[in-house]
Amino acid sequence: MKKYLFVALALLLVQIVSAQGYQVSLKAPAFKSGIAYLTHYWGTNLNVVDSAAINSSGVGIFKGPEKLIGGIYVVVLPGKQIRIELLIDKEQQISITTDTSDVINKTVITGSKENIPYQQYQKFVASKGKLLQEERMAFAMSTTKADSLLHEKNYNLYNGQLNDYREGVLKNQPKSMLAVLLSAMKEPDMPKQSPVTHQDTLNYYYNYRNHYWDGVSFMDERVIRTPFFIKKIEQYYGEILPQAPDSIIKDVDYKLLLARSCPEMYKFLLNWFTDNYINPKYMGQDAIFVHLFEKYHSKGISNWLNEKQMESISRRAYMLMSNLVGEKGADLQLLDSTGKPSSLYNVQADFTLLCFWDPNCGHCKEEVPRLDSIYRASWKKHGVKIYAVLTPDEKTNSKPDWVNYIKEHNLSDWTNVYQTKEMELADFAAQKPSFRQLYDVTLTPTLYLLDKEKRIIGKRLTWQQLNDLLEVKWKTSSPN
User: Fold this and answer.
1) Residue 332: which of 421, 429, 438 has the closest Cα?
2) Inside any domain, residue 180
């Protein structure tokens, strides 16, 4: 009796362990060899989870000891030309049999009830998609108004049928994984009437923004492994949300708060926000990255990052902390071309252009004369002053070339300054940040625009962009 009890318990334990992992069995008789891959969506890309060798019977098995995170998965057959999409959720002992002559209609997936409605949906989308494409092409080739109206009518009909099918899934199978995904994909409902007034347009915008995420739960990690979630993220933060750093920071914190009980979602969002704002598209948005570092990364929250990744993020954050737009730029105590001390803060001007350059830099040789030309032609009469810092290559002594360049190009109206090697070593010994770190000088020329109080109002801009910014500042400050 004890022996039978032991065997029964052992079998139960094996079943429990097996149930904790995943197994996806593939049968594709058209293949007699090769490697198939089990992948999942990560944004628009496919990340490989597992691989399986196909035997002479066309069978391959993907198997692992831990359950997979739910989402849309893709089995890529040998040759990487044929793909089979499936849903993976709670049921993870799945069998796939496919006829490669018609993957959509001749693939059978068992062991997962979530794939029954998903396969039906795929077939419906494929059939309607073909009709929609035909009507789109016919509309483009129409030669009469009647033809155009006919194909437009047909297109709207098929598109409406597709939308009705989706709404039917949401209504009749609300707890299915397909419904979760369709809900997350859904665009906010908008009023049918066109906006008339400016206030109407604003109301439409706020309605769209406020309901943009209605169908998405930031506590459901399954939406991460889809091709549409990253697109919604990119659209929202790139086009819909105001691009002011304060607005984005507030929203980012809220999204991370929502996701705090879902580790995979939290990880995905923090990684995406960090990657997106470490080198932002718009000036001033590096403040978002610094905020992410100070509030999350520096607190050890992103413990999934390796040492090299964390070091890279930390180094970048420390290079940006002291030169954020809207903050006061650090004072610089350097020497002018005659060897006399010259402080950045001693420059009295409504606007100060801070220029880091090297006379041996090819790009500087092109840009510095242009910068001086616009300075003489326009900026100087408006009281702009230039504080220009020699930023030499550490392996060469650029000072003689720098002095010669200043004389040859008559840059005497600029405050030209440099730092001796002794001054640099003294700062290092005192653990003071260098001007390279204070102003994130990683290439030359690097240009900053400071206001009267030495607050940074423009950074890492071209001279043309600086000129545009100054024109705006002069126009808005003009008493007329």
Assistant:
1) 438
2) no
